[in-house]
Structures are given as structure tokens and as C-alpha cells.
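Archive record:
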Amino acid sequence: MRVALFVTCVTDTLYPGTGRAALAVLERLGVEVDFPLAQSCCGQPQFNTGYRRETEPLVRRFAEVFRGYDHVVTPSGSCAAMVRENHPRIAARAFGGGAAGTAAEAAGVASRTYELSEFLVDVLGVTDVGAYYPHTVTYHPTCHGLRTLGLGDRPRRLLENVRGLELVELPGAEECCGFGGTFAVKNAAVSAAMGSDKARGIESTGAEAVCAVDNSCLMHIGGILARRGSAVRPVHLAEILASTDGGTVVDGTAAEGTAANGTEEEAR
């Protein structure tokens, strides 16, 4: 199969270690991965803010960049949801008349786009990726992954098969962390209050790390935890799955005894 990695804006600019970790996991499982350099934003910030016409060129670009691949894999439930749920509708409305090929192509690429845990469990049929992560972890199911993609227990099944990892339940796990992209900007006070509730729930578990499938949510949660002086570290699912006896993958190399890469610490 030909697989392309869609790394997303947040990961590319703030958490490149997550992209490298996703690549490490896929290659460990024998998947040959391409990284198309022409990829750009999926258009979610523009779309959610109401700039629908400005989203259309990004949808076209996504379809053009990732056509020809059997699967597109991304370490983001949020961006995967944007592509799968909205790209076909945007393309049909914008290109359905004189450019039906573009609309069909966008819909086809969208149908082949997967969040990382979906691809591992549903396409590869794998729940044990050979990871080792000797830490206590709690899992936060992010809103788009939970409600739009319907990830269900896929991330948990992967975490349960990581050697050395103790998975502890998160109270109110299905409650939103409050980030919501532009929601955090437009409704800062509500966003911060929701994040504080989530942070208290995370701290009550006694976990060393909180895991999620979206760096945007982890950025929000991690910032609040840091301001609270908490020792709990935000860490992406891909980074846990990339960890082995040799250490945690950080910027393409192995680093001993760390649950969160340096880029994450700087962002916090």
C-alpha cells in the first residue's frame, strides 16, 4: 500500500516530535510512508470561523496533494474529522458543477483519510505495536475523535497493549477540555473554566501523563496543568506508541526516561 503522512499545522509548527513518532510507529509495522512536501492546512480554522470560500482552495489542494495514495494517515482526530466529514460537502458545493472530477477526487481522498489509531486498528488490524512506556497514564478522548470520527476504544486498546503502561480511568473523560480551536479565542473565560475542570480531573487520577490523539487539546490542557504547577505531562498517543525499551522517540532519536518531548515542554 502507498501511505501518506498528513502531519497537520499544529504538529508541524509546535510538536514535530509527534509527526516523527507517527512515522516511527508506521515504519516499525512495515508500512512505507511518504511525506508530501506540498501539503498544507486542512482548512478547519477557516471553516469553523465562517470563511467557507477561503476553505475551498485548501480542500482542492488537499485532494491534489494526496491523490494516488491508498491511505492518508494523520496524528489528529480533529483534522481527520475535518477532512472526512467536511471536505466532500465543501467540494461538492464548490466544484460540483464545472469541475465534477475535483469534487469526486476530494470525496475519494477524504474516504481514505484516517486518524492514526483508526489506521492501526481498522486497516492494519494491529493493537500491539511493540511499545514500552513505564508510566501511569490517563486518556482524554478529544471531542472530534469521540463524537465525529467515533474512535471509540481504539486508542485505549492500543494503550492497554503497551508494556509497562498502567492506564487509569479519567473522571468525566467524555467532557470537553474547552479548547475547541477558535472557541478558546472567542470564549476565553468559558474555555479556561472547562480546561480547569479537566485538569482537576486529570490530577485526581494520580497519573504521570495525560494522553490524547490531538496536540491542540493537549496544548490547552498542558498549559493549564503547567499554570497549576502540576507534574502531569501531556503526551500524544503517537509518542507513547513510538516508545520502546530504547527510549522515547524525540525528534527522530531515542531519549531515555522522558514522557514528553522537549518541544512540548517549551510550548508549555
The longest helix spans residues 77-95.
